[in-house]
Each structure stands twice: as C-alpha cells, then as structure tokens.
Write a structure and sequence with these properties.
Helix 7 (128-137) packs across helix 14, helix 8 packs antiparallel against helix 12 and helix 16 packs across helix 20 (518-531). The chain has 21 helices and 23 strands. Helices cover 36% and strands 20% of the residues. The mean pLDDT is 94. It folds into 3 domains: 2-134 and 349-360, 2-Layer Sandwich (Nucleotidyltransferase, domain 5); 152-342, ATPase, nucleotide binding domain (Nucleotidyltransferase, domain 5, 2-Layer Sandwich); 380-574, Alpha-Beta Complex (DHBP synthase). By secondary structure, the chain is an alpha/beta fold. The strands form 5 sheets. A 9-stranded mixed sheet has the order 15-23-22-16-17-21-18-20-19, sandwiched between helices.
Amino acid sequence: MTILGINAYHADSSAAILVDGRLVAAAEEERFTRIKHWAGFPAKAISFCLQETGIDLAQVDHIAVGRDPGAKLGKKLLYLLKNPAGGFGTVISRVQNSGKILSLQKELARITGTDESVIQSKIHRVEHHRSHLASAFFASPFKEAALLSIDGSGDFTTTMTGVGIGNKITVINSIDFPVSAGTFYTAFTQFLGFSHYGDEYKVMGLSSYGVPRYVDKLRDIIQFRGDGMFTWNSRYFRSARDVAVTYSKEHIPFSGPLYTGYLEEQFGRARAKGEALTQYHKDLAASVQQFTEELIFHIVNHLQALTGYKDLCFAGGVAQNSVANGKILQNSRFENLYIPPAAHDAGISIGAALYVYNQTLDQPRGAALYGAYTGSKFSNAEIETYLQSCRISYSRYTDEELYEKVVSSLVNSGVIGWFQGRAEFGPRALGMRSILVDPRRDDAKELLNNKIKRRESFRPFAPSILKEYVPEYFEYTGESPFMEKVFPIKKEKRSIIPAVTHVDGTGRLQTVDKNVSPRYYRLIDAFRKKTGVPILLNTSFNENEPIVNSPAEALDCFIRTKMDMLVMENCVVER
C-alpha cells in the first residue's frame, strides 16, 4: 500500500511517501526551489517522492493532504458572525486558500498527467493539528502516549491535546483561533525586530543573554486556565481584519505586525530592524522564553495528570523551541519525550500520511522513526561526473583515508562542507548536509560567521555527540536524534568544547547513533580517537538559503564562501 502525504499552499510545503507504513522518501519543496519556507504546491517534492518509490501517481493508493477546510466549520462561521468587520477579510483569504486545497487534484493531474477523476477518489483530508499529532505519535516508539500540538494556527486550531493508543489517536481538547501561543511568541519576535517568517529561533538564542525580569508583566497577556488550556487579552494583538499570513508571488509567507499599539504602550517602542540590541531587548527575550516554557509546562502537567501516561509526543511549530523541550521532563511527571524531525509544518506531509495509514485504514504501526535521512542522494560516480564537467580539481579517497584527512583538517582549523548520503528532512542538518568545525576552538563562532554564515553573534552552534558519551558531557541524559533539545553542559566540560557551549552553559545536542548514522558516527569517532573529544560542531550546509540539496549547490556554496574543504561522499575539493 502506497500513501502520498502532502503539505501544500502553506509555509514549509512538503511531500512524503509511505510504502506499507514505511517512510520511503520525504522532502521540503524549499530544497528544490531554493526559497526558504516556500509555501506553494510542492510539485518537485512530489515528483522526487514518486521517483524514489519507482511509481507514478496512478499507482499511489491514497493521497493524504494535511489540511481539512471543513474542520471546525461551525466555529469558523460563529467567529465570523461575532467579528463581521474584524474577521471577514481573513476568512475570505482562508477560503481562497482552502479552495486551492480542494482543487489539489487539478494540480496533481497537471504535473503527472494522471486523469483527475482517478486522483480525486484517492484524496483524504486530515486536519492540520491531527496531522501534527500523527507525525509525532505514529513515528514514536510508544504504544500509548499523551499527545500535544502547539503552533500559530491551522484549520482554526492553535493547540490540541490528545492520547494515542496503538494505531488510534483521540483528541481531548483544543484551543480555537485566534488565541495562540505561537502567535504570542511571534508577536514578540516581531516586536524585537526580527520580522522574517520563522525568525522565532533568534529570540530563543537571544534569551540566554538576558534576565527574565518581565515574566509577571506578560501574565496580563496570556492567562492559564484550570483545564490545562489558556486564553489571552486581545488588546495586545491586532485583529484578523488587520493581519493575516499572506503569500507572495514567489510563495514566500509573510505576516504583518501581530501586536498592537497597546503592547507598545506597555512594553515600549518596538525595536526597528537593524537597531542595536539593548539589555532591555535581551531581558524581554528571556522573559518571553521563560513565560512560554511555563505555559508549555502548564499544559503538559495537566495533560499528564489527566491521562496518567509517562510518555509524551510533542509537535507543532512551538515544539521547535529546543530550549523549552530540554526542560519538559525535568518540569513534569513525564518520563519520555518524542519530538519528530520536522515538528513544524513540513512534518504535516508525513503526519497526514501516517494518519491515513494507521487511523483511517486501521493498519498496524511501523517501526519508530529515529533517522531523518529521506531526501536526495548522489553516488560517487554522479559527483565525479559533475565535478569533471565543471573542471574542478578533486581527489577521491577510501573511507578510512577520508576520515583521516577530514579529521586532520578539522584539528588544523579547517571548516568542512560535509555532503553525504540522503539529505535530512526538517530544518536541521544532522550530519548529511552539514558544515563541521572542531568544537574545542574558542574562536569557532567568529571563524564560521566570518567565513560562511554572517549571522547574528548571539546565535549558538550545536554539538553532534556520540550517543554513548552524553552522560559524560551533559547534565541530563536522553536521546536527541533530531537536535530537538537543549541540555546543560557539565561545568567541567564547558571549557573543553567552547565552540558549542552557549553563553548560559547549554548545548542543543544531536545524539549520533552508529546504527542510524553510521558514516557520520565513524567520522566523529575518528575525531574522538585523535583528540579525546567525541563531539563535532555541526551547523547546516548553507549560507542564508535553504540547506544545500545537490552537488551543484554544495559546490556553489563552497566557492562563494571561505570554506576550507568540500567533502561529497568520497570526493574531496580543497582550496
């Protein structure tokens, strides 16, 4: 049985394909279009998934779309009646976007040449947050678990809780648009001068430089409810009449300011883009981060008490907050936490497909997902052919020669572009499309920003650590295969790995398992044998663009930056 999952006409559009419940391929459209957060129809990602499976669309049994325009229709109409001026424009915009979802078969027919009537009978529409829940639970190792999804908004829901038992999900509670924890965090992201879609991680990084002095003041904005949910003070947020997520002709998502003049009255003038960051901005970021953590703990603890489960699955855009994620188990009675590789909206394609396979079709669950390597792959022969066509000088090595050469460069201040195997699905490079540096360097941040990244100095770089050595370096143990949790680094180790130790003594770790990432594991282990440190600094292989997807993009990034070495499979290009 083959199921194609799609996230379309929404930020981070993507496609995924399951064969008998096993994830065969998944990719974000931005990897092909080279436009971050691309929000159109994922034609190239769909074509890639079909190609990887070796079938055409006519052979696909089911098509799962992570959007259901009919979800909460009564509540949408009630909202419109209560807000005739404030909601009409937004509802019309969403109806137009929903129309695209309802006519997906036309676009699928156009790109594949398949008869539209054949396609229409295969389409299943899965509510946005149910897709998020499915992306976490059905990919997890848990037979039973509590489920949580939090983001900005999707299908008129902003937060959803539930339980998963076997191959079924049951929703417990939800919060309706516009009340949203994601919108709260995004509003302050904009207020702090970070205006691009997806900039929330900058506030998370900045928060470590501040003191949370304004948490109590934030309590006037969001109020916790006794049922584990929350509400808000609408005076702080612009109405739906004034603001909505829109998409440019290039399919780039954009949102105008979400906050009102009243928020500025209470918290001061918003920071202009490019304006110097003051201690007030840092303290406000710390306060927003801490309050968001408290909100998550409030929801999580009520959910645990209600369900009695010890395992939690968490998804949605807010589940990308790795600082909060690293604190959930220490601030709740949950014992285990699973977050999928793409907790944000790209993961909707996988979640919708899993929902249809398990929930709708009542099929047994497959193996837990611990690897995110579902994207494009290129052989040594293909890479060599490309390099030769570009008249680029290169050398090809055996595996053992390669590891020795790369490690030698790393310990001698080298910055390595590492392009291996299948590309990662999700927002983070996990050792297949990575830039690597020696974590012992105290000047690594400056080195990387000067040579490649050119990003804000307050943003940290992450450690990839061999799974067995986590207890030696981190105060908390636990798997983090998708770089989805931040843990405190042991005090005595911080001076050893300064390049991946944030200002607050933490690190957003990726635990590397030799059975999941054997090639990357062997490289880190070779570095360990030479230096005694089982860690590499790992950042995404890109320069203010989507992560590189092909040898051409990798070579282009290498050439236009000051990277020292490009390693594509066993082929090495040096300056």
